[in-house]
Design brief:
GO cellular component, one term (chains A, B): cytoplasm
Strand content of chain A: 5-15%
Strand order of the largest sheet of chain A: 3-2-1-4-12-11-5
Catalytic activity (chains A, B): a fatty acyl-[ACP] + phosphate = an acyl phosphate + holo-[ACP]
Largest interface: A-B, 54 and 54 residues
CATH topology of the largest domain in chain A: Isopropylmalate Dehydrogenase
Distance between the termini of chain A: 24 Å
Radius of gyration of chain A: 21 Å
Pfam family, one (chains A, B): FA_synthesis
Number of strands of chain A: 12
Subunit structure (chains A, B): Homodimer. Probably interacts with PlsY.
Subcellular location (chains A, B): Cytoplasm
Low-confidence stretches of chain A: 1-9
Mean pLDDT of chain A: 93
Largest sheet of chain A: 7 strands, mixed
Number of helices of chain A: 14
CATH superfamily of the largest domain in chain A: Isopropylmalate Dehydrogenase
Oligomer: homodimer
Helix content of chain A: 40-55%
């Protein structure tokens, strides 16, 4: 079906380009997280952003000179939330995002990590680094915490309106990601729908079902059929395929329901002396659960379909989240995932559809 | 904005028609729940279904003759999951659902409760009992457990593909439901979207936004703007408006995430002797949380837009859920909600659109 997960092997001489200026906590937390990753994962880091600010941040953390494995590429501008996502990368040609993605395109590094604007990153990655030849749209593929140890939800917001062919490509890309990066040998792929029967959903789901069913029959993906969001949460599939609107609503519902529960649990445990004592007795388990729901543990969301590895870190990432996003970028870059998509692109196109 | 919530006053001489044969636990649990409701809420019950089976169920529960306030209307057939939802009601003219909805149409009762097939109930209610004049589509409007004490999510599965006009009507109907049945004076209405900005979403969201914004400006509804699912879960709105596909995915994600959490918590508390002791200390709070997530507490989902009150109870309803669904039907029937929709239908139509 695809090359088996090389992502778990140790990469050699890998360099991750990091947008030092993107996100709510830039550059402080970004720089800190990048330095941690350089140290821990023995990975080279190319920090892109205002050199002066980056060095100042290091100084504030007691670091006088550039550590081993860390370089800086100066970029004088920063893309922020006020910028038009579609054009920000060319309106601000010397922004950390534009410079970083250009370095990625020019192979000055093996992957790019940014906690900046999702919309701007998507546009910039698509137009600077370009999509894999034959891929119609790049997609966001986060790992959602589910009963099965996590499920790849693709797409999650990059493409509000989709065609069946986009979803076919998302299914392949999600499946390769699950096998390469998560180490699941024959990832179970489901089409997110409002019922398990083949006839469920709108025209997008019905037409996509046929394409995925065919790909499953030809053993190119392990397609289980339609899957309801309830069953996705119970771990029924490794990859749930959907349009970016529905995926985004689902992702943020999981997040919101998690926060809702966490709030209720906090209240229950803080009620009185006995409940506070109870909290101590189950602290270990609760910490594990909290960790499971914490986006920072994963680090970021892969942008699949771009010709080189790009990881979108959460906008509110702290140093720990950035450290983990860099680890994820390292796995992505060494996994052979993009090559696998390239090798199999012929099966991801509708027959007769133009390039 | 609309008549204030009469739904909380005690109704007089109300009769609820109950589909005794619908759902996984029919007729046993349905009959039991209906008898409980008759007793507790002093409401008349008209049980529709196989008379022999209903009487046998009563006998098994030690009831020798029909209790006060309870009648039976015989129907020889049952619509089941194998029937085509769109045509089941006419293929099986003597089914409990068809007979029940015909009785409702003919004003032999004030509301109808069924735990049978959602699709069949929707088709049958639309074609037998009919929609309110001017309403384009009926919608499912469940109360989702959220940080704000619950949010009406409309639509949740009745209409996979929607127009902006449908969503405008859902917004009005959801708002009236929240004020009449939940007693929220000026319900906060949000359009479910993948960002708060006006420009977010696809063409459905953008066009609907304009309609809702206008209705808000004219003070017909209290429109807050776009709302993300994460914020819906935190209680940001009383009513979240969406198409039936997205709503269904969101609803089942909440359910699935709840089950995921419940499973994890169970494991944490069952780990060892100390954790089991901790469970005892917070049992009260945990029971409350469980209750909050339990669909049985609410009873069912209102079908809004039908000319008479219809409540869809969960397919796996037990007696307690049915009892609560009957209470909900009673509130719905005495609330003036349908009259309010009728009085304001002129504001829910696109100018120039035909009847």
């Amino acid at each position: 079906m695809c090359r088996s997960g090389g992502g778990l092997e140790k990469p050699i001489h890998m360099k991750i380009i990091v947008d030092a200026m993107g996100g709510d906590n830039a550059p402080g937390e970004i720089v800190k997280g990048a330095l941690q990753a350089a140290e821990e994962f023995k990975v080279d880091i190319l920090l892109v952003g205002c050199g002066e600010l980056i060095l100042k941040t290091m100084e504030e953390n007691g670091i006088k000179s550039l550590p081993k494995r860390v370089e800086i590429a100066h970029a004088s501008e920063v893309i922020d939330m006020e910028d038009n996502p579609a054009t920000a990368f060319k309106d601000k040609k010397d922004s950390s995002m534009t410079v970083g993605l250009t370095l990625l395109r020019d192979k000055k590094g093996d992957a790019f990590v940014s906690a900046g604007s999702t919309g701007a990153l998507l546009s910039a990655a698509t137009l600077i680094t370009k999509r894999i030849r034959g891929i119609r749209r790049a997609a966001m593929a986060p790992l959602v915490p589910t009963g099965g140890g996590g499920t790849i939800l693709i797409d999650c917001g990059a493409n509000v309106e989709c065609t069946p062919e986009y979803l076919l490509q998302f299914a392949f890309m999600g499946s390769y990601y699950a096998s390469h990066i998560l180490g699941r040998p024959e990832p179970r792929v489901g089409l997110l729908n409002i019922g398990a029967e083949e006839s469920k959903g709108g025209s997008l789901q019905k037409e996509t079902y046929e394409l995925l069913e065919k790909a499953g029959r030809e053993q190119r993906i392990n397609f289980l059929g339609n899957v309801e969001s309830r069953d996705v949460m119970m771990g029924a599939v490794d990859v749930a395929v959907t349009d970016g609107f529905t995926g985004n609503v689902m992702l943020k519902t999981v997040e919101g329901t998690g926060l809702f529960f966490a709030g209720k649990l906090k209240k229950i445990f803080k009620k009185n002396a006995l409940s506070k004592f109870a909290a101590l007795l189950v602290m270990g388990g609760m910490e594990e659960l909290k960790k499971m729901m914490d986006y920072r543990e994963i680090g970021g969301t892969a942008l699949l379909g771009i010709s080189r590895p790009v990881i979108k870190a959460h906008g509110s990432s702290d140093a720990y989240a950035i450290r983990n996003a860099i680890r994820q970028a390292q796995q992505f870059a060494s996994s052979g995932l993009i090559e696998d998509i390239q090798d199999n692109i012929g099966y991801m196109k509708l027959s007769g559809a133009g390039e």
